[in-house]
Amino acid sequence: MKQPGKRGILSGAALILTFILWTILIQTADVQPVGVNGTNVGFAAVNTWFHRRTGVHMGIYTVTDWLGLVPIAVCIGFGLLGLTQWIRRKSIAKVDGDILLLGGYYILVILGYLLFEMLPINYRPVLINGAMEASYPSSTTLLVLSVMPTLLFQVNRRAKSQSVRKMTAAFVLLFSAFMVIGRLISGVHWLTDIVGSVLLSAGLYVLYRCAALAGNREENMETSGDKDQ
To answer: What separation in angstroms does the CA of 72 have from each of 39, 142, 160?
Structure first.
């Protein structure tokens, strides 16, 4: 593997390790019963200070919640692309390798989401429809930051038009920024929930990108070898 690939894997692993450390700290550092119904919250001083500064804005929460369907639509779109290739080529083995890898990556993201839903680290600062909900990491932030960069990555690989690539880059950047900032200021998550999502999604995406690029290099080498024979 080339050096840049090694650096990418190390960067992704470092981000995942930082997320794990961050998760441990949330359960051990400055833990106080300041949450809904007296639930414990780590980094209590920082979290409560930030929550008081932002307040609660359920309108922003609702907008960002509905816009969470956008990354889900991206996942479905690539799933349909893979299914179409499977049907036309009559073999799953003939589906583009990066699309198969992308499907596995999306499944991994979903499993991570389900894991933290079943094992809540902490709860939201406010009740949602009268109920306590798991808050760490922010599932919407995790979904957006894990999926939207893959849209840009795939468009850059497949689109020949430079204008399409630029428009996609602008859309992904603006949409992701709006969603992260929106979840931050909506007041439905603690600050540390957002930070955790950023760390985990960044680590997962970097590892996916490295794997996709490595697979592409191997395909190019095989193609080059076939031409030489």
So the answer is: 31, 12, 25
Please name the residues in contact with 11: beta carbons below 8 A apart, sequence gap of 6 or more.
Answer: 206
CA angle 209, 176, 50 (to 5 degrees): 120
Give the integer Cα–Cα distance in Å for 15 and 146: 13
Dist CA 172 CA 157 (whole Å):
15
Residue 82 · residue 200 · CB < 8 Å: no
Answer yes or no: pTM beyond 0.85.
Answer: yes
- Cα–Cα distance list, 122 to 6, 42, 129, 142, 151 (Å): 35, 8, 18, 16, 31
Half-sphere CA count of 227, side-chain side, radius 13 A:
6
56-85, pLDDT tens digit by residue?
999 999 999 999 999 999 999 999 999 999
